[in-house]
Amino acid sequence: MSQPTHLRHLAGRHTSLAWTARVAAVALLGLLVLDCTLLTPLDGLSDGALEDGGAGAGGSGIPCASSDLNTDSMNCGACGHVCSNGPCHDGLCPAVNVAKSPTVPTFIVADDTSAFWADIDSGSVLKSTFESLTPTTLASGQPSPWDVAVDATSVYWTNTANGTIAKTSRNGGSVDTIVTGQQWPWGIKVDATSVYWTVYAAGTAGQGKLMKSGLDGGNVIVLESGLTGPGTLVVDSTSVYWTNQDGTVMKTGLDGGSKTVIASGQKDPYGIASDGFALYWTNTGSGTGQGEVMKAGLDGADRVALVTGQPGPTVVAVDLTGVYWTNSDDGTVRRIGQSGGAVLTLATGQAYPFGLALNTSSVIWTNQNDGTVKRTAK
Q1: Which residues contact 54 (CB under 8 A, 6 or more apart)?
Q2: Which end of the chain, C or N, has fewer beta carbons within 10 A?
């Protein structure tokens, strides 16, 4: 059984046998190679500084020739990049603490008032408002919670160690186990009527599944089977898209039965996101500095590498102006425009940044090595 790239790195940072065993219990991803076109070379890129010194990443096009991009809080690191949470320093807006997680925070979701995340080692699902630095434990005693999803009333998560899907209120309370009998459930998403998740199945070739149920766990169905190491996923109004350990990115309809390969031969595909018009995913790569952030149409057409040479890109998120990702290996959080362009480093010196979420003004992430949850201006 192969371990995913980011978990191999993570295991090297934690020496306890308990941690190593738990990492082994949640292994994923690690594979092939595809040469892709680089839209934005990284030559000359420095932390917080634009390559072109002109329009900001994301294509703001705001002239600021007289601005000092290292200190101007209205043009921090990029023209039009505004620091809403403190002064600009060395081309970076401040990385503000949201909360301190008990041990190892994993995936995170957020809205404009709160962030929700799983903490695998403590078996907790937590919430913190952006007005408080003290997290609230929504659920405890969970067997290796990994990914989380939210809707207007509830928080849902995968428990990798005992093969369950669970939920609770956004404000905490009783925990309901809504699905059982899954072999390493991994990624999870919800829409207005359903819960969707991947079954990693120890990465065994052909044993993975894509699953769906009602919000209460009723009517559990297999959307697709015969998969190899399915991981993270994203859902839109017509389809489900996901990454696989065998180097493929796939899609199917909301009721399954129409599995299509969006991309193959990818370099350890991991995180995936959509803006409703295109798909974006990370390829963690097979070695240091070999990661990529990819883009393709919802049907897989026009596939390009927005950026290459990234050190361990993991989770990716997208909004109307930019694509954001965590680089776990070098402790950075970065952004690029949806069509490429200049890369902007939003944060440096982070302790293995992993999970990533966006709200209206901020990018929020988890740091697995020091247990912090942080945010900075988008």
Answers
A1: 63, 79, 342
A2: N
pLDDT at 59: 39
Domains of the chain with bracketed CATH? 32-47+97-377 (2.120.10.30)
| Bridging pattern class, strands 304-310 and 313-318 | unpaired
Q: pTM of the predicted model, to two decimals?
A: 0.85
In three-state secondary structure terms, 86 is coil
Q: What is the pLDDT of residue 19?
A: 29
Which DSSP state fits 301?
-
Question: Rounded CA gap, 231 and 134, in Å?
Answer: 31
| Strand-by-strand arrangement of the 304-310 sheet | 269-274, 278-283, 291-297, 304-310
- For 11, phi then psi, to 5°, come to -60, -35
| Residues 255, 239, 353, 363, CA torsion sign | negative
369: how many CB neighbours lie within 10 A of its CB?
Answer: 16
Could you give phi then psi for residue 18, rounded to 5 degrees?
-60, -45
* Residue ranges, the chain, pLDDT below 70: 1-63, 66
- The pLDDT assigned to 125 comes to 98
Q: What is the sign, positive or negative, of the torsion defined by CA atoms of 86, 87, 89, 93?
A: positive
**Alpha-carbon gap, residue 42 to 191, rounded angstroms:** 37
